[in-house]
Each structure stands twice: as structure tokens, then as C-alpha cells.
Records
---
Amino acid sequence: MTTAFDLTTLVRPNIAALNPYSSARDEFKGSAEVYLDANENPYETGLNRYPDPLAAAVKKELEQLKGVPAQQIMLGNGSDEVIDLLFRIFCEPGKDEVITLPPTYGMYQVSADINNVGVKKVPLKAGFVPDVDAILAEANERTKILWLCTPNNPSGNDFPADAMERLVGSFPGIVVIDEAYVDFANRASYTTWLDRFPNLVIMQTFSKAWGLAGIRLGMAFASTAIIQLLNAVKPPYNVNRLTQKAALEALQEKQKQAEEVQTILGQRALMQQHLASLSFVERVYPSSSNFILAKVEDPKATYNYLMGKGIIVRDRSRQYACEGCLRFTVGTPEENERLFRALIEM
Ligand SMILES: *Cc1c(COP(=O)(O)O)cnc(C)c1O
């Protein structure tokens, strides 16, 4: 199963040869009394200085929380920036390709299109599980990245661990596991596999369980070599000072985050029951995330009815294998109650 993994054969030649931008804060890292090196305005506002390009203080906290050393962590302007960077590091436009497993998160396709990279789609099987043999059969030397989103958006389920292990262990290119919803899943993060698999990249985000979608902060965990590539290609100051500050504050309140996640999990179970009890709901899919996919008789009518009641859900009925489906994000108990009342009266 273990073929020798050679990162250099996967990286685009121009990226391998890149001489990264070196900022003032990269060149002088100590502390001084007078900074006259970065053309900043000297008058103090709390924001007149550039941010730390590598966000060392945030990574120090994450090291503890995630059990991953700082040199194996990269921070992006949301996971969406990390997705784009991975395409730019590994995929030669017009030549290379990636694999996605529809139905899945839309950004992999959009980022591929922006970077002129082909996408091979290997649909999820019944129950929204990966077709491991079909995926491996599609891989060749031009297939650089396999995108695995688990728990998967929009289906909500977590892929079986044995399928994950076969894919990460046997896929010849980079395997990205997008764990945006891992805090709502009943398992630990696959970051524990980083030492076993040099081709693995794990993405997480502050946008979901941490309640900080507005600050735009995504995390990537990978080998030191892959993290060095991500840091070389990212814009030098991609995570701004306000974002680093807000993340540090949130990381001081881990208890609050844990309580919110517990409340959301309780509300998810309640929402599953409520949806399943409605006659026009044909199917409620299992969820390991903070949303529920449900098949209804008339998705458009249901969507419009809820909109009229001031409640917006996501119409996923045009996604592959999601015919008739709406996606319900779990809200506060009051918001969910309002949704249930509206649905019962429909
Ligand atoms: C919401 C979501 C993200 C988060 O993206 P950010 O850019 O970090 O906000 C990533 N992946 C998936 C699958 C998501 O649903």
C-alpha cells in the first residue's frame, strides 16, 4: 500500500523554484524600541503596524489545542484561501486535474475553474459514501489533489474511517480532508494521521463551531514541507491584525465554544425529530455537522413559504443526488422553534 511519496514531483516547477517575498517583519523578527523598517505610520492607533505574517501567537494556542506543532500549521484568509493556494501550488493550469466527490462543497469546483484546472467527478455512492475503487481508478500522474469533505457539505454525514484510510494511504497525489464541521462530529480530527501520511492536508476553520465566520480565518495542518509551500505562496499579510486578535480572544474562551457546540448538537437532534415527523418531509439524512439535509415534496414551495415567514434555508435541490432537498442550518433554540412552528403550519 505504501508507495514512496515524493512531494517534489507533485509541486509545480515555478513554485518549487519560487523566491518568496520577504517582508520587513520576516527580515527582523526580534523586538526593538524604534521601527523604521516597514514604511508604516508611526502614530499609534493599535492598527498602524503590519500584522505578524505567520501569526505566531495564534499558532502557539493552536499547537496546544490541536496537538500539532506550529511548523505544521498554516493560517489562511478563510479555508477558501487555503483551497485556492493548494490549486496554485500543485496544479499546472490547463494540464493537471483534481478529483471531487459530488455532492460536495462548491468552492473546490470554483477554485479549479479560476485556476483552469480540470475536475474529475466521482459521485458519492448511496448513503453519500466515497466509492474508493472508482476514485483510485481515476487517479493518474496528472491527478494532483483529491478533495474529501467530511463531515460532507451538503449531505452532512461523516465518511467511514476505513474508506478514508484506504484513500489517504493509496491515492498517489495530495489528499485534502476538509474538516470544517469536525467539531460537530463524533470523532477526533484526522490530524492524528499526519505523521503516517506525508500527502495529507487537513483543513479546519473558525467559521463554524468557533462562531467567527466574519473574521475569515482558516487552518491547514500538514507536513512541514507542505506548510512551507503554503507559507511561501500566500500573500505575506493574509491574516490581518484584527483577525489575529479576535482569534486569540476566542481561544481564551474554549468553554464557551464547547457549550455552544453542545447546545447545537442537542438542537440538531430535536430538528431531526421535528423534520422526520412532517408528512411532506420524505427523508431526513443523518448529520455529523451543524446542518441537516432533508428531502421534501416540493422544495421550491417550501423554500418560498419559509422565506415569507422570514426564515431562509438553503435550496440544494439542484445539487447532484440532492433532488428535492433543502439544507437547514441549526440555529438557536428560539430560531429552531420558529422554524418548527412555521413548518407545522404549512
Ligand atoms: C463553511 C465551509 C468552509 C469554511 O470556509 P471558510 O473560508 O473558512 O469560511 C470550508 N469548507 C466547507 C466544506 C464548508 O462548508
---
Amino acid sequence: MTDRKTVRTWAEVDLDALAHNYRLLRGLDPKAKFLGLVKADAYGHGAAPIAKKLQELGADMLAVACLDEAIVLRESGIALPILCLGQTPPELADELLAYDITQAVGDLESGKALSAAAVAAGKTLKIHVKVDTGMGRLGFVYYEDDDEAALERAGKEIEALCALPGLEAEGVFTHFANADGSETYTKNQYIRIQDVIGELWDRGLCQFKIYHCAASAAVLNYTWTGCNMNMIRPGIALYGYVPDPSVRDPGLKPVMTVKSRIAAVRELPAGAKISYGCTATLEQDSQIAVLPMGYGDGLPRALSNKLEVRIGDKLCPVLGRICMDMCMVDVTDAPGVKTGDVATVYGPGLTDKAAQLAGTIAYELVCRISTRVTRVYLENGAKIF
Ligand SMILES: *Cc1c(COP(=O)(O)O)cnc(C)c1O
């Protein structure tokens, strides 16, 4: 019998491709520390095995979106520093401390609550100070170029944060909003974070060990001096994709390949309607393969009548609406296709195209692959589990 994990629809996660991307990105700025993003279950690739591999490869730090994701990593034995980028409610500060998680803090109020919790626990919580230089999400606000008053306000608040007991401010960072769109806007954000850091130094706050701003787009797009500060923070590039088609691809390898095993191949006559809503009509007698993958597996329904999957060396179109658990593929032009053959849905050359057809980005497609899709891990070219 075929491997139990690959009877229906599965995602192969190639840890060699991850290692390749890691080395390639590190090579772009060998002096910078490396933080690997493993939020959202490592962009759908499986947080624990990806984190373990990054730890093995020599990453300096990992980042997640929330406390629960950090705990999953600790419970799977990850010892690397973990930065929690999202807000953690102060009543859960005990868990940040117990699991030794570093917390991003972007406002004084959150800082005060975390400080109180750390003091009550008799412990010290590591934090990275988040500055909002133009993203409009989280962070101490400094948007205005050359505005001394605004700079002073941000400086004072961060100084007050760093003076709180029970907190150890280890890092300062910001996040670029448009590093794959506008170099001017990105440079302005970079100037603002430098201004804030200068203001903090003027206030005698020089204890920070780590300064960071560059996610994948900035790491790949920009080489201006200092752009990466002393740590880079890539996510999607680690998984083998550029953030936007406009971004230069230095030779990244997609880590995930999603495959589905053809459940049936059926001969249907010209005029036959395919799937819900009868949105597709066969123009000729056709061979239709049923793939056991649908939106319940994370395949966007918006790809109905648009997606092409690869079977052998042929690209075959999905016909009709994508259902929850299945979709239909026209294999008339791929003679010999039979039940049990494997169709590749996402992978090198496929994911970015599918993302464009769905009006989204590769990030969303890989994150959306649901838990029903088994993950199969490959290392040194062989299946490891
Ligand atoms: C997700 C995220 C990243 C990684 O972004 P990519 O575009 O995937 O490289 C970096 N920093 C922060 C704050 C993020 O939220």
C-alpha cells in the first residue's frame, strides 16, 4: 500500500530547500544576526520541524505572532530565543516568563502591565521595543520627518518604558510597510528609526543589543549601507518565495509542494456540466480527473475555473467550481492519466501563478493549507517523517 500519509492530499516540506534559502539569505548579509519567522505554523509548513531545522542551521532567533505559537515551539524542545510580535494580554505575562519568551512592546501602557506582572513574579521579561515609523500597526509612533517634538515624545515614552522594573529592553525594531513597493517610503522609514535610535542614545539608552527592520522584501531589494541593521528578519523568502513579483529572486527554492492523488478519472460527453452552479460545460468528449482537494484543504474557491495543476509534464485546467473536498481537472490532453496518479497543485512554478490567479500572494496560499493536508518532511532528498 502507498504511504498512509500520501493517500489523498499532502504537502511535502523540503528541509533541504529551507537550508538552501537560509544560507542564501544569510549570505546576503553575513554579519547580521538572523531571525527566522515561524508564525502561522511556519507559514503553513509546520512550526516545530521548521524551527528545529532553523535552530540546527544556526539561526539566532525565531519570531511568532502570539504566545500560543511560542509555547508550541518551547514544548517541542526549541531553545532559541523566541520573539512574540503580537500583543500578549498582561494576565498571561506569567507564561511569557515561564517559557522564556521575548515580547515586543509598542506602547507604554502594555509595558507597564507587563512590568507589574514581571515584578510580581520576581522575574525579568526580555522585550524588544517596537517603533511605528510608517506601518500603522503597532509601535511607539514616529511618522513625522524632522519633527523634533514628535521625536522627543517617542523618545520620552520609550525612556519611560525602559525605566520600568522587571523589563530588560534587548532590542529596538520597526517594520517596513512597502519595501516591495516604494524605495523612497522605505528609506524614510529607515531614517525615522535611525532618528529614534539617535534620540534614545542621546537619552543614555544604549543598552540595546539588537536593532532590526528588514523582512524579506527589504533583505532582497535593498543593499544600502546599514539597511539591515544588525539582524535580518525574513519570513516568506525562507519558504522560497519573493514577497512580490517585482522583487528580485536570488534563486530561492519553494519549500512546500502540495500534491493530490487522483481519486477517479471519468469519461464525460460533450455538453456535460461540471460541479456546483454548472459554471463549466464540456465542449468535447473529455477525460475528467477528480482531485481530492478543495477549499476544505485550503484551496481558494476563487481559483474555480482558473487554476492549473501539473500532472506528469502537462498543465491541466481545473474545470467548474472548487468544492469543499474535491475539484475536477480536465486531463483530456494528458492521455494515460489514471486513478492514483499524482497532481501537483502548488510548488515551484505553480504557487506564485496560483496566487496571481486568486488575486492574492503566495503567503496566503501556503498559510491556508489546512490541517487535513498531511505534512511530509524531506531531508537529504529522503522522506524523514
Ligand atoms: C511577518 C513579519 C515579518 C516577515 O515578513 P516576510 O515578508 O514574510 O519576510 C517580519 N517582521 C514582522 C514584524 C512580521 O510581522
